[in-house]
Amino acid sequence: MICTICKKGETSVVDSRPTEDGTAIRRRRLCVCGARFTTFERVQYRELMVVKKNGRKSSFDRDKLAKSIFIALKKRPIDTETTEKFISKISRSLEELGQSEITSSIIGTMVMDGLKELDPVAYVRFASVYRNFKEEKDFIQFVDNIDVYKRR
Question: Taking the complete model, does pTM exceed 0.70, yes or no?
Fold first, then answer.
């Protein structure tokens, strides 16, 4: 494994344990330069292709999914472990569909449904990008239709 600091491949595993949900192995690594970092090892069941709205296809990228979720959850009171579990749950759900091609709308809906339960603010943030809000009225109309806020 290449060190994130010195970019050399002389690292060793200091600690290795399964994640709480058992879907990955978390490894703490130590480089000869003294840097410590964490890596995750996950099973990849099959190559998933994402079909975009314009018909273009691309490989499913878990890191891209994670980045969008982390952006939505930025400065929210959700810890990294909970976020990782959420991302793993979505990835597993996609793989369990048994399809080699999945539309981006299915992924977006799964993320939105999960974020709605996890954090309502992150849900609105994600929706604003996913649904491509253009104006303030788009936000107002969307928030008015959220039953999460009506329950409070």
Answer: no
